[in-house]
Write a structure and sequence with these properties.
Elements lengths: L4 E5 L5 E3 L6 H14 L3 E6 L5 E3 H10 L4
Antiparallel strand pairs: 1-2, 1-3, 3-4
Length: 68
């Protein structure tokens, strides 16, 4: 099972890490929800073996997939 996590800053200005997700796509969807619903600032998504999706790539994906 993969272990993808979203690193973000919440509306109370606290750094947070999301629960684990089984895929990169599920973590991207969670990042979109955090950004849209919780007004969180997304830093990055980190996956297994140190794979990283940087903020710029996450924001580009969210822009292309704004609404489910």
């Amino acid at each position: 099972m993969s272990d993808w996590k979203v690193f973000y800053r919440d509306s109370l200005d606290h750094d947070r890490i999301s629960p684990s997700f089984s895929s990169k796509e599920a973590a991207l969807v969670q990042a979109r929800k955090l950004d849209r619903d919780k007004r969180a600032e997304i830093y990055k998504i980190e996956g297994p073996a140190g794979d990283i999706v940087p903020k710029a790539d996450v924001m580009r994906w969210m822009s292309a997939h704004r609404w489910p």
